[in-house]
UniProtKB/TrEMBL annotation:
Family: Belongs to the peptidase M3 family.
Domain Peptidase M3A/M3B catalytic: 255-697
Highest taxon of the lineage: Eukaryota
Organism lineage: Eukaryota, Metazoa, Chordata, Craniata, Vertebrata
Protein name: Peptidase M3A/M3B catalytic domain-containing protein
Required cofactor names: Zn(2+)
Origin species: Felis catus (Cat)
InterPro entries: M3A_MIP, MetalloPept_cat_dom_sf, Neurolysin/TOP_dom2, Pept_M3A_M3B, Pept_M3A_M3B_dom
Keyword check for Mitochondrion: yes
Length: 713
């Protein structure tokens, strides 16, 4: 696809760098440094107070969303998209007339950028803006740009201009590695759309792509759709835990944290009861994906999806999952025995362990063993303190400071949004992060990162600064109380900030591979690595202070919190292995050997251990099959890489500047412009094997002896 943003939610492609240059430092030397602004102010204070509004700008000119002049009103989206499409037409003419060479790739990237700058921004606005008129205008812009991208992906003349370059071995050999990789990525995106096929097959590929998109949207909506049951079928004391509408009880989730076994059982059986329409939709989606993969030259959809990833092939993924499952087996059995023991203690009449039990009883065991009541921790984790903690960490590791900056009138979509300038000690301004952290009506309940504008080196030698949004759902501060985070919220904040730093520091020449635009099983590495920092007492002790007394969070409370996460962790990881294996089988050889529900049952028995519950179809709620089709394993593989990086480079000293610079140079700086395994090798100074990945994940489950020493003091 020409527009990188069309391919991933968090932004999931990638980018490289000049050979022999020190990551983005090499690039930084070629562009003008951005100076320090006198309008910046400390980041911590910006998040612990309610915004006071913009008294001085009441009658000022509106600058438009993200500073884009056209977007001061919803109608501006039409202007922005028309401008982008006009520019795209000119760039298509230009690239088709220019002689093949490095300029071809630069024009392709500028073409991609002109479309992505509207589409990526609109993708965010259509789900996050509180005003319906803006959301609707953004939705129309997405559709318009999407249609244009589909046409470009089937433009044979455009395809041939790139093909001429890549067919000339002498020319290809003269390209620097980053330019060559970007050219190959553009070609890959063309060919998975079927442009290299004859006219009839090309039309078939376009039709399949459209059908897959429609089926994906339908399936995604169905994964969240509530189920209902006649209320007389449920006892009164169970019924009152759900929404009652007329003669029916509405069940909209699993109620996994309910202390009542019967409530969890009822929710599980009702919410997961198979819907015939959703079942057909999934079967059609999987079948059409397989047809498209075969049409464009792959034996399965999984083979197509895993091209260019760390894993490279479904065979490697299954080897990884099977080895991990084998290593987890005894630990998982011990976890289930422990959880079963707690269930027997609390509910002796019904002690059989069922799939709806582990989340609740694991939580009970954690609370009983480690005394980790969130209310004990929240006063130490004010949002401002956590932001200062991130600021300290980035300063010591990477020489980066986060400054709050007052946005112009109309620049943000909601009063509570904060704007951060990301500034390097010698390179100056690197980009902007808009922090949409607070709850509001209609806001999606998800923590995520959006690329609004990718970084790239422009023709005039200036660098187009990246712009991203981080979206969380935190409580608002009040006059007397700052926003207080639970430990889980704090960890999520660190995770999402890992994505943001990847976007800021993936300073590639081409926006098509900037920041998080990299293979999915690498894209989560920087964010998961930040979770290790968030769980290290040396890092936490730098910022965790009681918001009233200033008292530091005791070290043993940090360690207890970390150890509590290991309760039931093997069973949790085994569940992820099951999900990942199911995803691979669904996207493997077709026709499938059985129904999706029978495959679910067989895979659950092999990879999980708890019994399948008749008349349930969990796969119909598996929303990740849309965005992470054939790639769900990525969470596990990214965690394995992050674990290895932590242990090799940061566990001894989480503030080691030399290790931080190496991390930037070897992993963050390249975005998706370098093969992911080469980045991992550069960081670890070795080529990790599947066994290394498995060992890293399993060793994270081992108890930390230091915790026991501290608790005994």
């Amino acid at each position: 696809m020409l527009c990188a943003g069309r391919l991933g939610g968090l932004g999931s492609r990638a980018a490289p760098l000049w050979p022999g240059r020190a990551g983005s430092r090499g690039l930084g030397a070629r562009i003008r440094a951005r100076g320090v602004s006198t309008s910046w102010f400390p980041v911590g204070a910006a998040f612990n107070v309610k915004p006071q509004g913009r008294r001085l700008d009441l009658f000022g000119e509106r600058r438009g969303l993200f500073g884009v002049p056209e977007l001061s009103a919803p109608e501006g989206f039409r202007v922005a998209q028309e401008n982008a499409l006009r520019k795209a037409d000119l760039l298509v003419e230009r690239v088709c007339s220019v002689a093949p060479g490095p300029q071809t790739v630069l024009i392709f990237d500028e073409l991609s950028d002109s479309l992505c700058r509207v589409a990526d921004l609109a993708d965010f606005v259509k789900i996050a803006h509180p005003e319906p008129a803006f959301r609707e205008a953004a939705e129309e812009a997405c559709t318009s740009i999407g249609t244009a991208v589909e046409k470009l992906n089937t433009n044979v003349e455009l395809y041939r201009s790139l093909q001429k370059l890549l067919a000339d071995k002498k020319l290809v050999d003269s390209l620097d590695p980053e330019t060559r990789r970007v050219a190959e990525l553009f070609m890959f995106d063309f060919e998975i759309s079927g442009i290299h096929l004859d006219k009839e097959k090309r039309k078939r590929a376009v039709d399949l792509n459209v059908k897959i998109l429609d089926l994906s949207n339908t399936f995604l909506m169905g994964t969240n759709f509530p189920n209902k049951i006649e209320k007389h079928l449920l006892p009164e004391h169970i019924r009152q835990n759900f929404v009652v509408a007329g003669n029916h009880v509405i069940v909209d989730g699993l109620h996994a944290e309910s202390p009542d076994d019967l409530v969890r059982e009822a929710a599980y059986k009702i919410f997961l009861y198979p819907n015939a329409g959703q079942l057909r939709c999934l079967e059609e989606l999987l079948s059409n994906r397989d047809l498209l993969a075969k049409l464009v030259g792959y034996s399965t959809y999984s083979h197509r999806a895993l091209q260019g990833t760390i894993a490279q092939s479904p065979e490697t993924v299954m080897q990884f999952l099977e080895k991990l499952s084998e290593k987890l087996s005894e630990r998982t059995i011990r976890d289930f025995e422990m959880i079963r023991g707690m269930k027997m203690k609390l509910n002796p009449q019904n002690s059989e362990l069922m799939p709806w039990d582990p989340p609740y009883y694991s939580g009970v065991i954690r609370a009983e063993r480690y005394n980790i009541e969130p209310s004990l921790y929240c006063p130490f984790f004010s949002l401002g303190a956590c932001m200062e903690g991130l600021n300290t960490l980035f300063g010591r590791l990477l020489g980066i400071t986060l400054y709050a900056e007052q946005p112009a009138k109309g620049e943000v979509w909601c009063e509570g949004v904060r704007k951060l300038a990301v500034v390097h000690e010698s390179e100056g301004l690197l980009g902007y992060i808009y922090c949409d952290f607070f709850q509001r009506a209609g806001k999606p309940h998800q923590d995520c990162h959006f690329t609004i504008r990718g970084g790239r080196l422009k023709e005039d030698g200036d660098y187009q600064l990246p712009v991203v949004v981080l979206m969380l759902n935190l409580p608002h501060p009040s006059r007397n109380l700052p926003t207080l985070l639970t430990p889980g919220m704090m960890e999520n904040l660190f995770h999402e900030m890992g994505h943001a730093m990847h976007s800021m520091l993936g300073r590639t020449r081409y926006q098509h591979v900037t920041g998080t635009r990299c293979p999915t099983d690498f894209a989560e590495v920087p964010s998961i690595l930040m979770e290790y920092f968030a769980n290290d007492h040396r890092v936490v002790s730098q910022f965790a202070r009681h918001y009233q007394t200033g008292q530091s969070l005791p070290k043993n409370m940090v360690s207890r919190l970390c150890e509590s996460k290991k309760v039931g962790a093997a069973a949790d990881m085994q569940l992820q292995v099951f999900y990942a294996a199911l995803d691979q089988i669904y996207h493997g050889k077709h026709p499938l050997t059985a129904s999706t529900t029978d495959i679910l049952r067989e895979t659950q028995e092999k990879f999980y251990g708890l019994p399948y519950v008749p008349n349930t179809a969990w796969q119909l709620r598996f929303s990740h099959l849309v965005g992470y089709g054939a790639k769900y394993y990525s969470y596990l593989m990214s965690r394995a890489v992050a674990s290895m990086v932590w242990k090799e480079c940061f566990r001894r000293d989480p503030f080691n500047r030399t290790a931080g610079e190496r991390y930037r140079r070897e992993m963050l700086a390249h975005g998706g412009g370098k093969e992911p395994m080469l980045m991992v090798q550069g960081m670890l100074q070795k080529c990790p094997s599947i066994d290394d990945f498995v060992s890293a994940l399993v060793s994270d489950l081992d108890p930390d002896f230091e915790t026991f020493l501290m608790d005994s003091e």
